[in-house]
Amino acid sequence: MRSPLRRLVDHYERRYPVDVDGPVIGCVGQDVPVELVTAAGALPVRLAGRPGLDVAEGEKYLGRGVDPATLSVLTRLLNGEYGRLDRLLVSRDCEGSLRLFYAVRELRRLEPGLGLPETHLVDVLHLPHWTTARYNQVRFAELVAVLERWTGTRLTAPKIASAIMLHDARRDLWRAVSALRRDLRLTGAQALAAFGAVLPVAEHNRLLRELLKSDLDVHRGRRVFFTGSSHDNPNVYWLLEEMGSVVVGEDHDWGDLLATRLVGEPTLAALVERYQYNGPTAARASIAARAAHTAQAAAESGAELVVSYVRRNDDAPPWDFPAQREALRPHGIPAVLFDRQEYGLIDLSEVFVG
């Protein structure tokens, strides 16, 4: 019988297409409130790109000045690689996601034969003001109405509460997975799989609980913490860990950042607040907030080196690096920046310098 870890890795490596009976709603970006999708009886499936894919189709509509991960997602949508997606939710978590939303919306209007799913923009703002909270409350109410129309399911308070509790339970389990990794009982790539396996949340939670109870090997290597661009695939983790390192943490939204903040009270109002204050991501948070978070998270993970990995055309993370490096100095943790990297690749020639 396959181990819980092997099953999670299999689900992660075979994320698409998804074979389920109910509605499948694709999600782009970390600001999509997946709790509401679950409450509507649909499966939220976050869309990842594929390194090495020829993105000429995506470039035709978005140009070449976009994060290649976004180009890859659009190309996969156009190629039908995700399988059945009944609808698509795109969050405004970064410039690339926003441009993808506009492209898909216009392509549906101008070229309906492409078969792209109906899409809706989830516009969550992150400023710490009551006016921002009010704006987000209106946007969430709109999303509730959209999901009810799409699925034919009324999102009652009990359904929303149940979904919130399921997803908060998963965040708690992800935190426990992160603790295993800090103890070197998981590699960084394995942790990404535990975070990113595409499953109904209740089934995902069951597998995560089994993982936490299982016997796991202890790994050895230089303890590395990742900051910079997000990683929707394990390729860069594999490359680094093949060189004898172990990625013990990260501050991007396909990894530890997913579990940083719980909803807490199982209400729609608390859910809105959770997403307003979620983060801090490079695209939305201040440089000071990012630096403080990175330094604390790297120190707590026992990192011996912080690697700021930045993809080509991902413009926000390099602005954070000088402040992150300074914030890490009191902890005695060196940092190195790898800028303008190709999607899914890293130039390792100087990875241990700094």
UniProtKB/TrEMBL annotation:
Example of a GO MF term: hydro-lyase activity
Q: Which family does it belong to?
A: Belongs to the FldB/FldC dehydratase alpha/beta subunit family.
List the protein's name: Benzoyl-CoA reductase/2-hydroxyglutaryl-CoA dehydratase subunit, BcrC/BadD/HgdB
Going by the entry's taxonomy, the superkingdom of the source organism is recorded as Bacteria
Q: What is the protein's species of origin?
A: Lentzea fradiae
Q: Give any Pfam family that matches.
A: HGD-D
